[in-house]
Amino acid sequence: MSAYEALPGVCHTGTDMPAQLTFAAPRRAKPPRHLADLSWDERREAVGALGEKPFRADQLSRHYFGRLADDPADMTDLPAAVRDRLITELMPDLLTPVRDLTCDGGATRKTLWKAFDGTFVESVLMRYPDRVTMCVSSQAGCGMNCPFCATGQAGLTRNLSTAEIVEQVVAGARALDRGEIAGGKGRVSNIVFMGMGEPLANFATIVRAIHRFSDPSPRGLGISQRNITVSTVGLVPKIHQLADLDLKVRLAVSLHAPDDELRDELVPINTRWKVAEVLDAAWEYADRTRRRISIEYALIRDINDQAWRADLLGRLIKTHPVHVNLIPLNPTPGSKWTASRPSDQTEFVRRLEAHGVPVTVRDTRGQEIDGACGQLAAKTVE
């Protein structure tokens, strides 16, 4: 995916209510430890603690990250007794698929997962002629409370573990490797943290997941960090922390309004960190990483799609390395808002381009299966 290209399909949009500016998820039982939770050295230590030779960790890693194996019977280089114990201790089942919904001739697939504690989350795989993008969830639900987002309105259940995040992508990679997705065999090339949840509210976990995605096989999946995007509604201190880590992931800021008055309503965390603070943090991230910032902007009819707001946005960002990704608002149950008129969308684009700002209108892929931007709600019934 080009740095200037729209991020297709699903996005996250959400934020804690102003009176609840703690980002901790409710206290719940922790998921069982999994190989993907552990760094390379930690895996070897864990295997050693089980009384096995450290090289067994290398073998497990090769099966999970390299061969994408999920059947212990295929791990024939591990003696049966050793294999059963290691699988039980380091490769427990974390996410069970409940339902797959497809559209676009099978090229888009949304999966509803049930976690060990009965929590439901969703991920989406989107296949294009030149790439395959996995949209992953970092939390079950979202505490950000953006009123136009189904996930945000559902509230936050808990943070996902590193392995629960990684397993969403590994499962998609398996399906591609086995030719189960329309278009034949393939591989995951792009990852976007734009599913359920606010990624930076689960900061340490998503950083570990990024390393599992980008570390070379068999340490990880070997996906370039430049093909990984982290989306945020604007947790300013966490953006600064991310910049300090010397990662090469792209940052996407879910802005949705260029003025504080409206953004306070659309993105409630704006009452804590205003538009100027969020953008300043984004520009620092761009300067530190040499990556363009993606500004995510859901176009809502008669709410934030006025031409003067396009001009204001253009003036705010035109001198910075940025790309605007306009998102026609996707329908969610009970929402009082809808997508902009085509004429207003066209004028919004024209105004931004007049300021010299690169802009793309995101497609609505997955809308018919509630798999598009802002639609993920982990519904268990249709």
Automatic annotation (TrEMBL):
UniProt cross-references to Gene3D superfamilies, sorted A to Z: 1.10.150.530, Aldolase class I
Subcellular compartments: Cytoplasm
Residue runs in coiled coils: none
InterPro entries: Aldolase_TIM, Elp3/MiaA/NifB-like_rSAM, Methyltransferase_A, RlmN_N, RNA_MTrfase_RlmN, rRNA_lsu_MTrfase_RlmN/Cfr, rSAM, rSAM_sf
EC number in record: 2.1.1.192
Top-rank lineage group of the source organism: Bacteria
Catalytic residues of the enzyme: 122 (proton acceptor), 373 (s-methylcysteine intermediate)
Keyword Magnesium annotated: no
CDD domains from the UniProt entry: Radical_SAM (cd01335)
UniProt keyword annotation of Manganese present: no
Binding-site residues for [4Fe-4S] cluster, renumbered to this chain: 142, 146, 149
Reaction equation(s) it catalyzes: adenosine(37) in tRNA + 2 reduced [2Fe-2S]-[ferredoxin] + 2 S-adenosyl-L-methionine = 2-methyladenosine(37) in tRNA + 5'-deoxyadenosine + L-methionine + 2 oxidized [2Fe-2S]-[ferredoxin] + S-adenosyl-L-homocysteine; adenosine(2503) in 23S rRNA + 2 reduced [2Fe-2S]-[ferredoxin] + 2 S-adenosyl-L-methionine = 2-methyladenosine(2503) in 23S rRNA + 5'-deoxyadenosine + L-methionine + 2 oxidized [2Fe-2S]-[ferredoxin] + S-adenosyl-L-homocysteine
Cofactor note: Binds 1 [4Fe-4S] cluster. The cluster is coordinated with 3 cysteines and an exchangeable S-adenosyl-L-methionine.
Alphabetically ordered keywords of this record: 4Fe-4S, Cytoplasm, Disulfide bond, Iron, Iron-sulfur, Metal-binding, Methyltransferase, rRNA processing, S-adenosyl-L-methionine, Transferase, tRNA processing
SUPFAM superfamilies named among the record's database cross-references: Radical SAM enzymes (SSF102114)
Segments forming domain Radical SAM core: 128-368
Cofactor(s) needed by this chain: [4Fe-4S] cluster
Pfam family, one: RlmN_N
Sites where the protein binds S-adenosyl-L-methionine: 197-198, 231, 254-256, 330
Uppermost EC category: transferase
Function in brief: Specifically methylates position 2 of adenine 2503 in 23S rRNA and position 2 of adenine 37 in tRNAs.
Leftover remarks: Reaction proceeds by a ping-pong mechanism involving intermediate methylation of a conserved cysteine residue.
Family stated for the protein in its record: Belongs to the radical SAM superfamily. RlmN family.
Annotated NCBIfam families: rRNA_mod_RlmN
Protein name: Probable dual-specificity RNA methyltransferase RlmN
Gene name tied to this protein: rlmN
